[in-house]
Specification:
eight-stranded parallel β-barrel; 40% helix; two-stranded antiparallel ribbon
């Protein structure tokens, strides 16, 4: 079991409600009246989070990608020298960078960091945001492109010849071609998430880890089994991963109080506005997150210790494990039994919540 944390490169908060929580959604100005205790994503603060996570023994930090956050490659490169063992799960979009250039970036990062890079391929679930980056492909086409992207980048990293002339890429590269006098470096583990058949197909063919958001264990087990079966049909194996928030304290009562305080400043109008915007994205994974609670703040414990309060206003991962350290550890074991081998957690604010989890839950899992 590998346990990782999240690096808040879009800024951090002590409560929910700011525009930064609407991942993939343009803020409309009215959200700014919510006092969230916002913390900017300065290099000083991100370094503090990364060093804390490194000291506590987390496997890696996931850095997001998109218009709501700083560039993942630049931030993680700046943190190499400030950390010792921590790996960097760098999110990037195949539509925003060419596969050969990506292979070069990975090779450079691996040499500079001593092999501490991991890759999170984000195909993109928001057509509006994709177009803002100049990407006009449909979702299914983005998945097809992602598969070809990874095929090319893997071949380049392995020093194999690449000759491609397709609807997405034209590459003519001899075998053994390196970068800056160095041999290319093979791609590290690739993480890819999604809920659609297209996502499972690409993950089965090209990823080492298939990621899902935090649905109840039974739903997660079904999805992970489908991905593993699809990979097996291609002669491959794939690990299950999950992206969850967490609120953990010495007692369950303390944790649930923190959860309620996180959403105390949200009014019904703001929730309705965010729910409508999230529904419009057309993402299957986002739809499944929203269906867990239906926008009802009185219906947020969707499974034992699984709280959907984050999903009232936040895009992407919308659920959290909430409870005592022992309860959270028990729920993690349930997800492990459902096929999850890698966990990526986060919590608001990320610096303090990492301490609570690292000191209270990690020892129980070890």
């Amino acid at each position: 079991m590998k346990v990782s944390w999240f690096l808040p490169t879009g800024g951090d908060d002590e409560r929910l409600g700011g525009a930064s929580h609407g991942v993939g959604i343009a803020g409309d100005g009215r959200d700014a009246v919510v006092d969230t205790g916002h913390r900017n994503a300065s290099l000083e603060y991100l370094t503090a989070v990364a060093q804390t996570v490194d000291r506590l023994g987390f496997h890696a930090v996931l850095t997001p990608t998109g218009g709501h956050c700083e560039d993942a490659w630049l931030v993680t490169a700046a943190l190499i020298g400030a950390t010792e063992n921590l790996k960097f799960l760098v999110a990037f979009r195949p539509g925003a960078v060419a596969p050969v250039l990506s292979a070069q970036m990975v090779s450079t990062f691996q040499r500079l960091s001593g092999g501490r890079a991991l890759l999170n391929v984000v195909v993109g679930g928001d057509d509006v945001e994709q177009r803002s980056y100049g990407d006009t492909l449909s979702k299914d086409d983005r998945y097809r492109r992602a598969r070809e992207f990874l095929e090319i980048a893997r071949a380049v990293g392995d020093g194999k010849p690449v000759s491609v002339d397709s609807e997405f890429y034209t590459v003519d590269r001899p075998s053994g071609a390196g970068f800056g006098g160095h041999l290319p470096v093979p791609l590290p583990d690739v993480y890819l998430g999604g809920s659609s058949p297209a996502a499972i197909e690409v993950a089965a063919a090209q990823a080492e880890v298939f990621l899902t958001w935090g649905e109840p264990p039974a739903q997660v087990a079904e999805k992970i089994a489908a991905a593993k079966d699809a990979a097996g049909g291609k002669g491959r194996t794939i690990r299950g991963g999950i992206r969850l928030h967490v609120i953990t304290r010495d007692t369950a009562a303390q944790a649930w109080t923190v959860a309620e305080n996180l959403i105390a400043g949200l009014d019904d109008e703001l929730i309705a506005r965010r729910q409508q915007a999230l529904r419009s994205l057309g993402s299957e994974g986002q739809r499944r997150m929203l269906d867990l609670h239906g926008g009802d703040r009185n219906n947020l414990e969707v499974a034992p210790n699984l709280w959907a309060g984050f999903g009232l206003v936040r895009g992407g991962a919308g659920t959290a494990l909430v409870g005592s350290h022992e309860e959270v550890a028990d729920r993690i074991r349930e997800y492990r039994d459902a096929g999850i081998e890698e966990f990526i957690f986060s919590g608001y604010p990320h610096l303090e919540e990492a301490e609570h989890f690292g000191r209270g839950v990690l020892p129980l899992l070890q």
